[in-house]
Amino acid sequence: MADCFEPKSFIRHNRQLRALQIANQAWFCLQDIARLMGRPLDERATLKLDPDQRRSAWLTNDGQTSKQLLISESGLFAMLVHHYVPENRALRHWLTHDVLPTLRDSPGPYAPSLKTVSWPRSSVRVLEWQGEHWVRLENVPHLMDRPSERISSLWKRSTSFWRGKLEA
After folding, report:
1. What angle separates helix 30-37 from helix 73-82, to the nearest 10 degrees?
2. How many CB atoms lie within 10 A of CB 107?
3. What is the tens place of the pLDDT at every residue in 4-60?
4. CB contact set of 132 (below 8 Å; sequence gap of 6+)
5. Cα–Cα distance between 80 and 155 in angstroms, integer?
6. According to the 3-state scheme, what is the secondary structure of 119-140?
């Protein structure tokens, strides 16, 4: 079976909304959004969305696994506009102020996180992402035990060179 995700459940008016983060982007179960909007939304309704705003995925819920159609955050707001009902204003407010901040504040298993690597005389901030540690190029000399002035100036020149190329 393909990747299987375990979504977070949110409740509004005794109706469940399953939502999750995939690759640092919020995704919502279309079936649940349809119930909350009181509209019959199916795969055909998502054809108005761009291909990157919809996807299918396997979700686990209460021990059951099912294939669900998901829509991205931008797809969700597009659906609220395309299929307007008066409740959508309150639904959008709830999504914006409760659901999305909760999703973003709870990192998933593959979310990047900042760490500090410390030695007796120095420390460096690193980004841990997908099981690997990433270091800013300009911090590489600090990882060496005792960087000489020559190595340090080389790194300063190379980082300023690349920074100039990236900004251009």
Report:
1. 30
2. 11
3. 888 988 998 888 999 998 888 899 999 999 899 888 887 787 888 889 999 988 998
4. none
5. 50
6. CCCCEEEEEEECCEEEECHHHH
Strands 132-135 and 123-129: antiparallel
pLDDT digits (tens, 9 = 90+) for 66-112: 898 999 999 999 989 988 888 899 999 999 999 998 888 765 555 67
Measured distance CA(59)–CA(80) in Å, rounded = 23
Could you give the domains of the chain? Answer: 4-105 (3.10.260), 113-167 (no CATH)
Name the token pair of 36.
């909350």
Both tokens assigned to 138: 């300009």
Cα 16 → chain centroid: 21
Can you point out the beta strands (E) in the chain? 4-5, 8-12, 15-22, 25-29, 54-61, 64-72, 113-118, 123-129, 132-135
